[in-house]
Specification:
With 363 residues, the protein is an alpha/beta fold. The protein has helices at 2-17, 20-37, 66-95, 141-152, 154-162, 180-189, 245-251, 273-292, 306-314, and strands at 41-47, 53-59, 97-104, 125-132, 170-177, 197-198, 200-202, 207-209, 232-238, 257-261, 297-303, 323-328, 340-343, 353-356.
């Protein structure tokens, strides 16, 4: 019941408070109210000659009724126009759809749903597409693969949610809090979407925020490719916090390591859209350079905000780039801090695949 009441209040605010239709209806109602109670008497006089003096009275409540009638007529017209605009707005609301894609994969996920952060001015019926893998992702190997299979269904679920609507009648929002490999996979699966409104969880303000309101971060430091040797490499990308190189050598012994990192750390911060675009471009350039040096498989270790992780996944092109496996960091496993990962889809397999390692990967 509370949800229905909240939705009705949202619609009333959309149709009558924040729209031109509401302003027209409000102005018309005021004019009609004023016209029905408008009572003005105006006395006037003029001397026609030395012996004649003319005087009169104009009263809206008496014979001069046209002022009240005019207010009532104009008010009625404004209300009619406002109601017509409200009907058109209602038709748009019925035709359009707003899809909120949210991933939940962390035990301590937030209670505020992403759908609630979509601005009320965005027209369309809301449709929440929630992928919750919290009960499976930290379980057994079978459970973890089941969680990945749920994420692999994202393109089909999104297609069903669109319900055959025209692209112009759709708005897609996406975000989530989940393990890094899951977020990267979701981004890869959403790469074909032409326009997505990305959202990130602001841990300081405790709310969903658009990268358009995020902060700018510095450039990635120059990358050293001197260690590249062979067709397999570890790529460590430090954005939120620095990645421990010693832990990398435990999980990936004897594999060369290439590091991408910012000059400073930005934990818990929402990164701006401009910075995200720059980092995505630099990431693709680094991958292209390594591919040109003969690299065919990249073991990606990523410490980055959720929305940036998804965006990096969205710029991965399986048909043109090396195989990428994105790993999950688990500090408690001191002998192997990166015990599992997800191999991204490729040209032959259109789904993510679980990869586990017990003793680390050796060259």
């Amino acid at each position: 019941m509370n949800k229905i009441i909240h939705r009705l209040l949202d619609l009333l605010e959309l149709y009558f408070r924040r729209s031109p239709a509401g302003k027209l209806v409000g102005t018309g109602a005021l004019l009609m109210a004023a016209g029905s109670t408008f009572d003005v008497k105006l006395n006037f006089g003029a001397r026609a000659s030395e012996q004649e003096y003319l005087e009169g009275q104009l009263a809206t409540a008496d014979t001069e009724w046209w002022i009240s009638a005019g207010c009532l007529a104009i008010g009625a017209v404004l209300i009619a126009i406002g109601l017509w605009f409200s009907w058109q707005l209602f038709q748009d609301q019925r035709r359009k759809r707003v899809i909120a894609i949210e991933l939940r994969g962390l035990t301590q996920s937030v209670d505020t749903i992403l759908e609630s952060a979509i601005p009320r001015r965005v027209l369309g019926a809301r449709h929440a597409l929630l992928i919750d893998v919290r009960n499976q992702i930290d379980g057994t190997k079978t459970q973890r693969q089941a969680a990945i299979d749920l994420v692999n269904l994202l393109p089909q679920q999104l297609k069903l949610a669109k319900d055959g609507r025209d692209r112009n009648d759709l708005a897609v929002y996406a975000g989530g809090l989940a393990p890094v490999p899951v977020l990267f996979l979701a981004g890869t699966l959403l790469a074909s979407e032409s326009a997505i409104n990305w959202m990130d969880w602001d841990r300081k303000e405790l709310r969903w925020t658009s990268p358009n309101d995020g902060i700018d971060v510095g450039e990635i430091a120059p990358v050293d490719f001197s260690s590249v040797n062979g067709d397999e490499i570890v790529c460590a990308m430090s954005i939120s916090y620095p990645i421990d190189r010693n832990e990398l050598t435990l999980s990936f012994p004897n594999l060369p390591i290439v590091e991408l990192k910012l000059d400073g750390a930005y934990p818990g911060r929402v990164i701006s859209e401009t910075s995200i675009q720059n980092i995505m471009q630099q990431f693709m350039q680094v991958v292209a350079v390594m591919q040109g040096m003969g690299v065919r498989k990249i073991h990606l270790v990523l410490a980055a905000p959720s929305v940036l992780t998804m965006r990096l996944g969205s710029c991965y092109a399986p048909r043109n780039m090396p195989v990428i496996i994105v790993y999950q960091y688990q500090r408690a496993q001191t002998e192997n801090p990166y015990p599992w990962g997800i191999e991204m889809p490729n040209s032959d397999r259109f789904s993510g695949l679980l990869t586990e390692q017990n003793q680390g990967i050796k060259s």
